[in-house]
Amino acid sequence: MRQFIVIGHDAPTTPDFSLDDLAGGAGRLDALCRCVNSAFFLSHDFRSDVRLFLVLQDELTIRFEGSELRRLNPDERSTAALIRKALEVKSEAIGHMEAESTPGVHVSKRDFEAVLTDASEDATVIELHEDGTPVVDVEPPENPLFVLSDHGDFTDSEAGLLAEASDERVRLGPSLLHGNHAMTVAHNYLDTRGYTDY
Q1: Can you list the alpha helix ranges (DSSP code H) found in the chain?
Q2: What is the crossing angle of helices 179-191 and 29-40, to 10°?
Q3: What does DSSP assign to residue 69?
Q4: Does residue 198 surpass a pLDDT of 70?
Q5: What secondary structure does DSSP assign to 105-151, as a single string?
Q6: pLDDT of 35-57, one tens digit each?
Q7: pLDDT of residue 59 exceeding 70
């Protein structure tokens, strides 16, 4: 199982946002939607062995479960519509108990610390960081959990929690990448384990 946690610092926690203004009025929800699509889509295929958590403003979490997902399409607008449906049922989520809005999409009232604690139980926690060990020097783990931030940096509190939980701190390359591009590179790192030629 491959897992990703993506923190959305400015993302909406209510469904009253426009699908026509994801980059502005919806708190850069466009960046989070691109992360969702990068987590699951291949060319003419889909990754069912992936779980993605979007942590919104450290108060709500939307979990996308690849093995159960339906109605996810490779465009930002329809992904945002799935997120909006999840936010519409958040009142049905009781504390850490989830409510399912559409197949494979679940919402709960969990913050980053709770999600990180739960998701890391049987996983190798990998922090993607510009000062980390080059990824080519790190053996790919069987059950990785990658933790990323949105267009902004981790807060001091988030960075502290992640430093305590991390098993590895890795750098994907010499240049800083957008979160969704980093996820694609991380997938490739895992997909090509053991390859000696192409």
Answers
A1: 29-40, 76-88, 112-119, 156-165, 179-191
A2: 10
A3: -
A4: no
A5: EEEE---HHHHHHHHTTTSEEEEEEEEEEEGGGSPPPSSEEEEEESS
A6: 999 999 999 899 999 999 999 99
A7: yes
